[in-house]
Design brief:
The structure is a homodimer of 389-residue chains.
Chain A lengths: L4 E6 L7 H14 L6 E4 L3 H5 L3 E3 L5 H8 L15 H13 L2 E8 L1 H13 L4 E6 L15 H22 L3 E6 L6 H6 L2 H4 L6 E3 L7 H14 L3 E6 L30 H13 L3 E4 L4 H4 L6 H19 L5 E10 L2 E9 H4 L20 H7 L16
Parallel strand pairs in A: 1-2, 1-4, 4-5, 5-10, 6-8, 6-9, 7-8
Antiparallel strand pairs in A: 2-3, 10-11
């Protein structure tokens, strides 16, 4: 008889709903006759390599519910790139613990790891659960984690606009996560649906920055209306391809060789101050944007849970080598279904913001994006603010 | 017959509950027979100088409730220092609009303006409503705005700790508002009540930073446990008295001559990276910390509303020249009462974090502070996180 235990691990940066996927996986595995015991690796693939597992077989419904409401990851994660030497240790851990099913919840890099494991472990059914606030995973309409981060930025940007407009003394530059893709910056424009104001300029990495044109636009806007918000991606690049205001130093590259972003907003605020003489400041919520529990999208949380459950269902019916993706069946009313996407279509592919979502001026977002994004923020996307007319 | 209209204005940076004080003022003035019409100045004292008022006499209960739930300020604010020439214009506006009662909602600088108006306008009853997230106003146990910002930082820091611990690859340095006072940095330590972890080091302006001692402490802590949070005040100063990582340039001083803080966290993260070779990053939510509606403390909102109402009650019984303050009657159960504080005791006084709330090592906060702060966060201060044991 083949091994019937299931192992789940987390890869890469946490999100607000990654634990919801874990809860979905555990709940579904408890239901499936094909699965005996349920294990999770501590600290992601590092825990698999080191055989550091924790058993979750008998988690209660109440525990799973609380787990669903908790941001980040309760079992830990890592950014470890699997080496040749690691694969033998991974195989040993899987054999030792009678693992027949292995689920990896992560983004691009994790799906690459997942693909390699799938190709090398013939006797183990391997699959991926999507996760990224950046929304840059291929093969899916969107990824769990994005809707909640999008809601965080839409609401936070609306509140920042309220604040900046109330005081009317500065340009606030808000730095938004998303690595090399502008999806979350685009989500900040939904602030205009939440409150009386929206960011005046949206700078995404898909459109490298022409500083002179940007400064001229800010100066013109300031002459019309003092006190507005600019949003900029943490991964923003200059026209020359250099990252804006990157925090330098030895630790600016992660173990996958990706540059660590950050500093773009502080750079632009200084530029506005020194070049235009306009008071400017920067806000960089950074990791807070992916860790917020109170701003979670209920739709995102439900879908994250469903992605974790669907992966178990597919594995237990004999499928493997896939990542769960979402296909949008309809937008009004919003409806999605889970699909299997070949891991080879996903691994290491970076999905950028499509041209149709970026305005012709390269510093704005089209209404078409709002149609795409709005349902992902959940049934009550925005607070109801009072605005004096 | 003396003038019977009331004018209210906002001064300085917005908070999450400043509009709640406005709602309290309007609702109470609607009830008081001594008040005829209710006006608010747009953009704070600038609107008084320019006679730019809006009438709020007939706001409905539903509108006042929505106003209470909206962060920032619906009528606008400013950072304008009143000049001699302005006083004549202010007097004209008050006379033109039949103003007998003038309420100014603000912090230290605004209470200075309030005092000057009170001294010069014999025929107008002037009073102040306290407002500051920094909690640095004298003469009161705490100020409306602080409890909500404290809750924002306590919960956000707990979630940042969850995230940073899950990944365990870096030191995150979180920059917290509060100007020259460490109250909000201290509030971040309540993260330990909210989640499984608390910041390991808390750097407040009341204790200038010894960089070498700090670096040695971080290095030692890192050797024990990788992945932790440091919080630092935006107004943090070095042992030499220089502001840490201040954003330079022409706009770094406001119209009151105060230096604009910011950049301390990015500075420390770079220091940790370059000097210790430990991966480090910074988060600076900045204005988001005072603008969040979803993390508002219900206690803070109620008290803000009560402060606005109490000021009107006191004015209409003939008192003036005071700021409303809170006196803590009991801590268990938490109970406060409003008191009148002479404006001269408040204007331009900056209340720092007392020595008894700062640990002997100068980089931690004592349990005594938690006793003081906990009730201000409201009846359900923290989310209920799941933690794997």
């Amino acid at each position: 008889m083949s091994a019937r235990n299931l192992l789940v691990a987390h890869g890469g940066g946490p999100t607000a709903v990654m634990n919801a996927s874990l809860a979905g996986t555990v709940a579904e595995a408890q239901r499936q006759g094909a699965v005996d015991r349920i294990f999770a690796a501590r600290r992601g693939i590092e825990g698999v390599v080191a055989n550091d597992l924790v058993e979750l077989t008998s988690m209660s419904g109440a525990e799973l519910e609380r787990l669903s409401q908790t941001p980040a990851t309760a079992i830990g994660s890592c950014r470890h790139k699997v080496t040749e030497a690691d694969f033998a240790l991974v195989a040993a851990t899987l054999r030792t613990n009678g693992i027949g099913y292995f689920l990896y919840n992560g983004g691009n890099d994790s799906m690459d790891t997942c693909l390699k494991l799938s190709e090398r472990m013939d006797d183990i059914a391997v699959a991926g659960i999507p996760k990224t606030i950046d929304n840059d995973l291929a093969g899916t309409d969107h990824s769990p984690g994005f809707g909640s981060a999008a809601r965080y930025y839409a609401v936070s940007t609306a509140e920042l606009c309220l604040d900046v407009r109330a005081l009317s003394i500065h340009v606030s530059v808000l730095e938004i996560m998303g690595r090399n893709a502008g999806w979350l910056c685009a989500a900040a424009t939904l602030a205009g649906e939440a409150g009386p104001d929206a960011p005046r300029f949206v700078l995404v990495p898909e459109r490298p920055l022409d500083e002179e044109r940007f400064l001229a636009s800010v100066e013109k806007e300031w002459s019309r209306s003092q006190g507005f918000v600019v949003v900029v991606s943490e991964g923003m690049v200059s026209a020359g391809g250099r990252e804006l205001g990157a925090e330098g130093g030895v630790e600016s590259v992660d173990s996958f060789g990706h540059r660590l972003p950050g500093g773009a907003a502080a750079y632009l605020a200084a530029l506005i101050r020194t070049r235009l003489g306009i008071r400017s400041r920067s806000e960089k919520p950074g990791l807070l944007g992916r860790a917020s529990a109170v701003l979670v999208s209920d739709t995102d949380r439900l879908e994250a849970r469903e992605a974790g459950a669907a992966a178990v269902r597919e594995l237990s019916t004999g499928n493997h080598g896939f990542m769960i993706g979402f296909r949008r069946v309809s937008n009004k009313p919003y409806s999605v279904q889970t699909v299997r996407v070949p891991l080879s279509d996903v691994a290491n592919v970076e999905r950028k913001l499509p041209n149709g979502y970026i305005g012709d001026d390269g510093m704005s977002i089209t209404p078409k994006f709002a149609e795409y994004c709005r349902p992902l923020l959940g049934p009550s996307p925005y607070p109801d603010y009072f605005v004096l007319r």
